[in-house]
Design brief:
alpha/beta, Rossmann fold, 2 domains, 9-stranded mixed sheet, 6-stranded parallel sheet, 19 helices
Length: about 500
């Protein structure tokens, strides 16, 4: 079948089976109800953008599934409106009651799994509950998580033929592979975890029953993908601690259900998207404005969500310590931060955002004029800041990848230095040129790294940038997804798939 014909058929909607079934928490588009009728909106997000860019390049029949609480989305799925959008692939939503979705996403997902996978227990107000184990100790949150995972697995099963491969994406669906395996024992199933996977000690805080469900669900996948070797190795150690037979050399776990391969698929920056952003007059206006802030000083930049995992608070503490101990820098550096609000309805996120705002106010009182913070989401402004930095700070506690660091390396035009947490997936790609922070929780070490980067001679900065750009030269979203599909196809063919 020709590529164009395949994509037309793939966009036909719910009827028929697909060669590739993608499942993520957020779909590429949604219909929003308004007084004048439904309005189509494109949904932002790093996972969504990456999958959208990748899926549109595939020759195979592709169907993308995502849970949704929107009645308008379900009507659009039923009447075929998604099929007429020309997405380049099929898309449909899986109905989910709002109360169930909130418990699945916020309570079990964010306040349980996200905190565990990023080892955030020491960074949050304690205790989250009487046992300090978070909402996953609450059976209703875990049941909601399982209910959504079971529903998306059932929808995926309905869209399969014998040679289909199903790819679940991210921590919201850690148990979905197990549910699909129970329905279709011979189906080829993958799970890619975009988030970090911290050391087994971080997950040990979760209730034993929850840990068992997660491990069994994840091992329902034939191929389990992570952003970096660090996270893949953590999962292998987690499996070994649970009594599984682990072959670390081969990257495989043997279990009662068979064998799961554990692989690394580092997500790439989206060059096509970056080119689109910088082709606009708005980007040029923001670049000019940021250059105006730099006059006579070095420009230090950070671009992040207000997420405890991003470690924004300690970044400000390190900056304040740097200015305290080196007063000469107060007139030689300007810190510009683009901070996007994140999950404000989650109590710990609201608590963390308030502490960050207090730290910012303290710095602005103590050192007037050295700190500019933008508190809203503006992707074009953020990309312009990455283009203009002399030093970029990325000090995440744990981060699955952190594409901001890679985007900065690609778009920056000042041979800027990068201060980068070793606990990001990007550190595996950029460590040859970055100023690496072994322990991002060490505020004094972070201040020292900032001083080193700010004082770095231009020649050294240029050499480091060249080393960081080299591993990004051939990375692309389509190659990233294609690598996963190739491994899944190999597994399928080795099993004698029809």
């Amino acid at each position: 079948m020709a590529r164009g014909a395949a994509r037309t058929a793939g966009a036909a909607g719910a009827a028929g089976a697909a060669d590739v079934v993608l499942v993520s928490d957020r779909g590429p588009v949604t219909f929003r109800s308004t007084p004048s009728g439904p309005v189509l909106e494109h949904r932002p997000g790093s996972v969504t953008s990456l999958l959208d860019r990748s899926a549109r390049t595939l020759r195979e029949e592709v169907r993308w599934l995502a849970p949704s609480t929107s009645a308008e989305d379900h009507r659009a799925t039923a009447d075929g409106r998604f099929a007429g959008l020309g997405l380049g692939y099929g898309f449909r939503t899986v109905p989910c009651p709002p109360a169930v979705y909130r418990r699945y996403y916020e309570d079990a997902g964010v306040r349980g799994l996200w905190y565990a996978l990023h080892d955030l227990w020491d960074d949050l107000p304690q205790p989250l509950d009487a046992a300090g184990q978070g909402p996953l100790r609450d059976g209703s949150a875990l049941r909601a998580y399982q209910r959504v995972n079971r529903a998306v697995a059932a929808a995926a099963a309905d869209g399969c033929h014998a040679r289909s491969v199903v790819c679940f994406h991210d921590y919201q669906f850690l148990t979905a592979p197990g549910f699909l395996r129970a329905r279709l024992p011979t189906q080829t199933v993958g799970l890619f975890v975009h988030a970090a996977f911290a050391a087994p000690e971080a997950l040990a805080v979760l209730p034993r029953a929850a840990r068992g469900l997660l491990l069994r669900g994840m091992l329902g996948a034939d191929v389990l993908g992570f952003q970096s070797e660090r996270w893949a190795d953590s999962f292998l150690r987690f499996s070994a601690a649970a009594g599984c037979e682990v072959d670390r050399r081969a990257g495989a776990v043997r279990h009662a259900g068979g064998r799961t391969l554990v692989r690394r698929y580092p997500a790439p920056p989206d060059r096509e998207y970056l080119a689109e952003v910088f082709g606009t007059p708005e980007a040029d206006r923001w670049s000019a404005a940021l250059r105006g802030l730099r006059e006579g000083v070095r420009l230090l930049v950070r671009v992040d969500r207000l997420d405890p995992a991003k470690n924004v608070l300690r970044g400000f503490e390190a900056f304040a310590l740097l200015l305290d101990e080196h007063p000469e820098l107060r007139h030689r550096v300007r810190f510009v931060c683009c901070l996007t609000p994140s999950r404000p309805a989650v109590p710990e996120y609201a608590w963390y955002a308030a502490r960050v705002r207090e730290a910012v106010a303290g710095i602005q009182r103590a050192f007037p004029g050295v700190l500019t913070v933008y508190w809203d989401e503006d992707r074009t402004r953020a990309m312009a800041a990455l283009r203009e930095y002399d030093v970029l700070l990325v000090n995440s506690v744990h981060d699955g990848m952190n594409l901001v660091a890679q985007e900065g390396v690609l778009v920056n035009r000042r041979d800027g230095a990068v201060v980068l947490s070793a606990r990001t997936g990007s550190a595996e790609r950029l460590r040859e040129g970055a100023v690496v922070l072994p322990d991002p929780r060490d505020v004094r070490a972070t201040a020292s790294a900032l001083r080193q980067a700010l004082a770095m001679p231009l020649g050294e900065r240029a050499a480091r940038v060249e080393r960081m750009r080299a591993p990004l030269a051939t990375a692309s979203p389509e190659a990233w997804l294609r690598a996963q599909l190739a491994d899944l196809a190999e597994v399928r063919d080795s099993k004698g798939g029809l």
